[in-house]
Amino acid sequence: MKSFLIDRYEKGGALRLGESALPELRENDVMVEIHAAGVNVLDSKIRDGEFKLILPYRLPLVLGNDVAGIVVRVGAKVRQFKPGDAVYARPAQDRIGTFAEYIAMDEADVAMKPNNLTMEEAASVPLVALTAWQVLIERANVQKGQKVLIHAGSGGVGTIAIQLAKHLGAYVATTTSTANIALVKSLGADVVIDYTKDDFEKVLQGYDVVLNSLGKDTLEKSLSVLKPGGKLISISGPPDPDFARQSGSGWLLQQVMRILSFGIRRKSKRRGIDYSFLFMTANGSQLGRITSLIEAGVIRPVVDRVLPFARTNEALGYVETGRAKGKVVVAVK
User: Fold this and answer.
1) Residues 116 and 137 in one domain
2) Is the model's pLDDT at 240 over the cut of 90?
3) Residue 159 belongs to a domain
4) 217 & 179 share domain
5) Which parts pass through the membrane (predicted)?
6) 160 and 271 share one domain
C-alpha cells in the first residue's frame, strides 16, 4: 500500500512516499480503508525525534494519528463493527500510521463516524477532541460555573475545547490573534485575549482550570491566572513523574522527567496549584460520546483546509507554521 514514512528522525525532514506492507490484522482488530487523515503537530514532533525516549518506534515508520474510513475486514473476536461500517479513530500510540491506504486498529479505539460529518471533517476530530475530553472531563472535572482558560483557541485542540467547556457550563476565556477573534467567539468563548495587544496574565484572574498547549513562558504566566486549588494542565510539557509512571517509563527516564518538570511543579506548589502533564490516549468509548455531541450539534469541527494525499508533506508544513484555524486534513481516497 502507498504510505508516507520516515526512515530516520530528522528535524524538519520530508516524509517519504513509498510502499509498505498491509498491517497485520489481530483478532480484536478492524482493518480500515483510509478515506481521510488528520494532520497534527504531534506528527512533526514524532518525525523530529522529540518523543523517541517515551515512544520508541521501530523505523521506518508510517506517520499519522487521525483517521476516518470504511471497515473492510474484522478480526475473529470483533463484535462492535462489521465490513462496510464508516468509522473514525485516533489509533493507539504504538500503532499509528494513518498517512496510508489502510490501517489495523483495536476495536476498543474505534467509534462510528458521526452521520452529519464528511470523511474529511470526521478525520479532523479524534486526537484533538479526545485531548479536550481527557483534559476537561477526566483530569479537570470541569463543573458548571467554573472559569476555564484555553490557550490557542483557534488551534486544533482549542476549537474543540472551547465548545466542550461551554457545553459543561464553564465560563471560557481564550487567547488568539486578531485575525481569529471572530472564530473563537463563534465557538462560544466569553472572553477573548488578543495576544498581539494584551498580556493575558494581566487581564485574567481567579480561574479554576488552564489548558496549556504553548511554551514555557505561557505555562509559567498561567500560574498567576489561577486561584489556589486551581489546575494547570499542559499538553505540551514538560512531562511530570506521574506521567512517567503511567507510561511505564524506567527509573532513569522517570528521573529525567522529574528534573524537567521540577521548576513548574515547585512554582505551582507554592501557589497551591495542581500542575500535571497530559498525553492523550486512544479511547473508542469516549470518542463514541463525542460522536453523540457532534450529531446533537453541540460540537462542530473546524477544518482549515483539505489537501490531497500526495501533498501530505505540504499539509504537515502548514500545520507547523502554527497558522491553521482548526485542523488540516489529507484526503487519502
Assistant:
1) no
2) no
3) yes
4) yes
5) none
6) yes
- Report yes or no on 288 lying in a domain: no
Contact status, residue 132 vs residue 153, Cβ threshold 8 Å: no
Task: Report CA-CA distances (Å) from 325 to 40, 44, 152, 189, 312.
Answer: 12, 17, 10, 15, 18
State the total domains in the chain: 2
In a domain, 254, yes or no: yes
From CA 109, how far away is CA 126, in angstroms rounded?
10
Residue 12 has pLDDT above 90, yes or no: yes
> What is the edge-to-edge ordering of all strands in the sheet holding 61-62?
16-19, 2-6, 61-62
| Buried b or exposed e, range 210-220, using 16+ CB within 10 angstroms | bbbbbeeebbb
- The span from the CA of 188 to the CA of 173, in Å, is 9
Distance CA 319, CA 44 (A): 9
How high is the pLDDT of residue 250? Answer: 83
Determine if the pTM surpasses 0.90. Answer: yes
**Rounded CA separation 112/316 (Å):** 26
Same-domain status, 37 and 113 = yes
Residue-range definition of the domain harbouring residue 261:
128-277
Q: Where are the alpha helices (DSSP H) in 247-306?
A: 251-260, 262-270, 284-295
If asked whether residues 155 and 270 sit together in one domain, one would say yes
Mean pLDDT on 155-166: 98
Q: Which three cell numbers stand for residue 168?
A: 459543561
For residue 228, the domain's CATH number is 3.40.50.720
Is there a single domain that holds both residue 243 and residue 313? no
* pLDDT tens per residue across span 77-135: 999 999 999 999 999 999 999 999 999 999 999 999 999 999 999 999 999 999 999 99
Closest by CA position to 113, among listed 36, 220, 10, 222: 36
Residue 285 within a domain: no
Quick one: which of 283, 148, 130, 126 has its CA closest to 211? 148
